[in-house]
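Example for tutorial group B:
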């Protein structure tokens, strides 16, 4: 087994961090949150000689899942996640796409939803699934214990937290998700988030104004 690597392809006008997680030896991996601009995502896959085994979705907002069905068709892989509580969001992506003036995004129908405590993997890289609502009711986080790494979607940002003014959002629930499920994993855990730079949980615990 090689080391776990990550590459980011910013997509949609929201500059969402579509993330390709892959093994640097076998070149197998997964795409996390292909929100749109599928041609750019496919180019990154091809340019790096990667074989994608699945599409993982953290939550149902259009900038995270709007390109998933197109990418699924192109690659012939399954869409896994998020939690079923986000099914209403996934079914309204095309409608939201029109209201935001972002063409080409489609409703998403996952091949399977995820629940707290499940694991997902590619090759030998195993990720624990944490259900972390607040930003979206069905938001999940993918945590790799061996690599001390988490993909947190829009739950936590460097110096900030996810919005809770969208349908299904709740600020108290979001903060509870962060403080009860993410921060206890350890200060050393590095993370990639849905927008902007990532960081480490310890820095957020000490300095994030929403958490101190």
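The residue assignment follows.
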């Amino acid at each position: 087994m090689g080391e776990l690597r990550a590459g980011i392809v910013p997509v949609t006008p929201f500059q969402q961090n579509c993330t390709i997680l892959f093994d640097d030896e076998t070149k197998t991996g997964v795409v996390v949150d292909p929100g749109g601009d599928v041609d750019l995502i496919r180019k990154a896959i091809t340019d790096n000689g990667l074989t994608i085994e699945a599409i993982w979705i953290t939550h149902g907002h259009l900038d995270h899942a709007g390109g998933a069905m197109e990418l699924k068709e192109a690659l012939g892989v399954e869409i896994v996640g998020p939690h079923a509580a986000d099914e209403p969001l996934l079914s309204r992506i095309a409608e939201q796409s029109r209201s935001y003036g972002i063409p080409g995004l489609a409703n998403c129908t996952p091949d399977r939803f995820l629940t707290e405590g499940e694991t997902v993997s590619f090759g030998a890289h195993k990720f624990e699934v944490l259900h972390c609502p607040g930003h979206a009711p069905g938001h999940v986080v993918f945590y790799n214990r061996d690599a001390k790494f988490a993909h947190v979607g829009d739950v936590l940002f460097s110096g900030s937290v996810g919005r809770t003014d969208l349908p299904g959002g709740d600020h108290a629930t979001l903060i509870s998700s962060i403080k009860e499920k993410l921060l206890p994993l350890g200060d050393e855990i590095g993370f990639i988030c849905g927008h902007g730079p990532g960081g480490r949980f310890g820095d957020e615990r000490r300095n994030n104004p929403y958490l101190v």
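The first strand starts at residue 4 and ends at 11. Compare this with the pattern of hydrophobic and polar residues in the output above.
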